[in-house]
Design a protein that fits this description.
The chain is of the alpha/beta class. The protein has 2 domains: 119 residues, NAD(P)-binding Rossmann-like Domain (Rossmann fold, 3-Layer(aba) Sandwich); 260 residues, Dihydrodipicolinate Reductase, domain 2 (2-Layer Sandwich). The protein is 30% helix and 26% strand. The protein has 10 helices and 16 strands. The chain has an 8-stranded mixed β-sheet with strand order 8-9-10-7-11-12-13-14, covered by helices on one side. It has a 6-stranded parallel β-sheet with strand order 3-2-1-4-5-6, sandwiched between helices. β8 and β9 form a beta hairpin. It is globular. The chain starts with a strand and ends in an 11-residue tail after the last helix.
Length: 383
């Protein structure tokens, strides 16, 4: 593979706009193409955003040998299908969350990544941002003491009148849990570092289109720690995360898209004596962190090598390696803002990877048991 990772957008979804700038800012990435099922739409989108190539079908894009990686931003229900097709075409994949919506799909994606020796990331950009990395460092260092409770939520208003919005389409696996509930859920599992919860309680509110427009859940982990999480399309915008330990409480005021507006982010650490410390992290675009974190895992030869960014405590790794617990795993030590210049920057992680595919498997098991497989809603709109 060339030194530059040549990217393509697999769809013309609105979320692409968050990646276009970072792909161009990353020194070793090039945005080369976009695909749509409509050739005219693809060409118009390419012209609007200054993208060199436009493809009138997803298959045509995947057949292009000059494309190294694709950003997959199709609706949830199409993620697994097109991620697998992209990997079968030898492409690395950055897939919008959720990567899959069932354990059966997970097994198929895992097999495709293994068979084709490619890297697939789930697009949780916040996990790569310095704020999240700093928060997890504080947890691991013991500043908070043993974690007892995590409270986190992500809500925004999506009225029934916007029924055409893909988030409200039942046939495409929409709903608040898969759209924004995955953020507090993934943070809970990442912060505790214990894998799947041992007990889950959850409820959902079903909206007019048949998808959940509200979800709340309580997760109990083996250590006794509890995570209380929620998501909704039926309230004004609200977001926050609290990590509550024996010695301190860490409040992440803007946990999910820190730095996206170009401003520094602040966390608040409160100790046992009610003294508060402001912890400032730089104004870094989380989507840029995501792009730069993926590049080393895609560009190192030979291609069958795989990497996990243990130092970033992120979960975006080559699934092939982590799912098999391969003995030869690797860590990329530099910050997500500094890509390694050579293989010398890669060092064995000795199995210390905390999350990665393990986190994702835990999240799928939880979702299957807690929300996605629940019975029909009762008359009060909750299951």
């Amino acid at each position: 593979m060339s030194k530059i990772l040549r990217w393509a957008l697999l769809s013309t979804a609105n979320i692409n706009k968050a990646l276009i700038g970072p792909l161009r800012q990353s020194a070793r990435s090039e945005l080369a193409a976009v695909a749509s099922r409509d050739a005219a739409r693809a060409r118009a989108y390419a012209d609007e955003h200054g993208i060199p190539q436009a493809f009138g079908s997803y298959e045509a894009l995947l057949a292009d040998p000059d494309i190294d990686a694709v950003y997959l931003s199709l609706p949830n229900g199409l993620h697994a299908e097109w991620a697998i097709k992209a990997m079968q075409a030898g492409k690395h994949v950055l897939c919008e969350k959720p990567l899959v919506v069932s354990m059966a799909e997970f097994a198929q994606v895992e097999a495709a990544a293994h068979a084709n020796g490619v890297t697939i990331f789930e697009a949780f950009m916040y996990l790569h941002h310095p704020q999240t990395r700093r928060a997890l460092e504080l947890v691991r260092s013991g500043r908070l003491g043993k974690l007892h409770l995590i409270n986190s939520w992500f809500n925004f208003h999506l009225p029934p009148a916007r029924a055409a919005n893909v988030r409200l389409k039942a046939d495409l696996t929409g709903g608040s849990a898969w759209d924004v509930g995955v953020y507090p859920n993934s943070l809970s599992i990442a912060a505790l570092g214990e894998g799947a919860p041992v007990e889950v309680w959850a409820q959902q509110t079903i909206g007019e289109s048949g998808v959940d427009v509200g979800m709340s859940a309580q997760l109990r982990f083996a250590s006794g720690a509890v995570a209380q999480i929620s998501s909704s399309f039926r309230t004004p915008f609200r977001e926050a995360a609290y990590l509550v330990g024996e010695r301190g409480i860490l409040h992440l005021h803007e946990p999910w898209k820190p730095g996206v507006t170009g401003q520094e982010r602040v966390m608040t650490l409160t100790d046992l004596d009610s003294r508060s410390e402001r912890i400032v992290t730089p104004a870094v675009d989380p989507y840029l962190c995501e792009v730069q974190a993926m590049k080393p895992a895609c560009s190192t030869a030979p291609r069958q090598w795989s990497h996990c960014r243990t130092r970033a405590t992120s979960c975006k790794v080559c699934w092939r390696s982590t799912l098999q617990r391969a003995p030869a795993r690797w860590c990329v030590r530099p910050s997500c803002l500094h890509e390694p210049a050579s293989d010398a920057a890669l060092t064995p992680c000795n199995g210390r990877a905390n999350h990665c595919a393990r986190l994702y498997r835990a999240r799928l098991e939880q979702a299957r048991d807690a929300v996605h497989g629940l019975s029909e809603p009762a008359s009060n709109g909750r299951t």
